[in-house]
Amino acid sequence: MKITIIGGSIGGLCAGIALIERGFDVDIYERSANELKDRGAGLVIQPDMMDYLIEAGVSTKEIFGVLAAQRQVLDDNGNPSLIYPNDTVFTSWNYLWKQLRNAFPSSKYHQGYELTSIRNEEGQVWASFKNGRVIQADLLIGADGVNSAVRAHLFPEIHPRYAGYIAYRGLISESELSAAEIDFFSDKFSIYPYANSHLLCYTIPGPGGELGEGKRILNWVWFQNKSLQQLKDLLTDKNGTVHEFSLPAGYLSDKNLSELRARADAELPEILRKRVYQTKAPFIQAIMDMEVPKMFIRQVAILGDAAFLVRPHTASGSAKAYRDAITLAMAIQDVGNLQNALEGWNNQQIVHARALAIHGTQLALRSQLGQ
Fold first, then answer.
1. Contact 139, 287 (CB under 8 A)
2. Does the pLDDT value for residue 38 go beyond 70?
3. 3-state secondary structure 235-270
4. Domains in the chain, please, with CATH?
5. How far is CA 300 from each of CA 22, 102, 125, 138, rounded to the nearest angstrom?
6. How far apart are CA 313 and CA 368, in angstroms?
């Protein structure tokens, strides 16, 4: 079976690796002509995803990420009021993507392919690209994220919905921290909860995957409620350009950077307030919700953020894409009827995604965030 994957991010690579393992002829087509980067933002590696990628030879447990052995809840003075065991492994988007990319054949990974249209007929599907190429396949998989062109083809009426709050994010090299500050955050998942918000910190690998103390990166995330008008203002960068779902590092306007620091002065304990001031280029993620009624139509399927957006509190964004990808590969393996296989996969993943979305919303409401 010839399979075309649109999108060369984490979900697309997981699908590609799993499908090639099962003997399928797979090519990935990525819109960007350059190496993908996601600002180095931190993320959680769920245990089942880690186990699979170790078994598939993508990574080893020793270099997967940074283990936070403890979780500490901070009080208004920035002191731990509660400490308990924790076994979360944190990594960065860039670090995980590079490991997956190295595990997928370069000859089958094509960059500079922007999808323009899809023709989906019984038994075959054709993808047309801006560069003039037309690719025929037996199955096309859309793993092209929140702005999915494949989803727009299947469900043009469905768009992400703003959930009513944002996440400010920042990255600080451990080399910029004192020994006492490194010790305070090292090997811990720190969270400061308070009314209508919370801020969390954890350590992730360095820009080159460094895992040694002093060479890693401290990642912080601060959730704040914002109106639609406030969101538009925040996503208007220092050059006056309006962004849709996120604001890259280095583009926050001086006015909004000053407001962020003023809020840190008013609301955060010193150990966290210093981190906000220390961050040279904070960036912004607008929290969105979205779901599709079905994850495939005939020979076209979508997975990961192309199909469902879940709140970040579930720590399952990348894991959801991975599970969609792996279960899809398993579903179509050795199955004579592709449509029956896709129907079974769809029914299973829809239930899981909806439950995850509900859980994420509940977690947000507990923190008095969003709608």
1. no
2. no
3. CECCCCCECCCEECCCCCCHHHHHHHHHHHHHHCCH
4. 2-33+112-160+290-366 (3.50.50.60), 61-93+162-287 (3.30.9.60)
5. 19, 26, 7, 9
6. 13
CA torsion angle 118 102 309 322 (round to 10):
100
Terminal C-alpha separation, the chain: 44
| Residue among 179, 176, 270, 288 at smallest CA distance from 226 | 288
Residue with structure tokens 């879940």?
Answer: 310
Lookup: tokens for 52: 């699979």
Could you tell me which residues are beta bridge partners of residue 6? 29, 142
> What are the backbone angles phi and psi of residue 291, rounded to the nearest 5°?
-150, 150
Per-residue pLDDT at 47 exceeds 90: no
Per-residue CA distances from 222 to 101, 291, 298 (Å): 30, 25, 42
pLDDT at 51 (0 to 100): 82
Helix axes 338-366, 317-332, angle to 10 degrees: 160
3-state secondary structure of 144: coil
Predicted pLDDT at 39: 57
Which DSSP symbol is given to 39? Answer: T
* β partners of residue 73: 82, 191
Mean pLDDT, range 212-224, rounded to an integer: 95
Residue type, 346: N
Q: pLDDT (tens digit, 9 = 90+) per residue, 94-117?
A: 888 998 999 999 999 999 999 999
Query: Helices marked H in the chain — which ranges?
Result: 10-21, 47-55, 93-103, 149-154, 179-185, 228-234, 254-267, 270-278, 317-332, 338-366
pLDDT tens profile 279-331: 999 999 999 999 999 999 999 999 999 999 999 998 887 888 889 999 999 99
Per-residue model confidence (pLDDT) at position 62: 65
Is the pLDDT at 336 greater than 90? The verdict is no
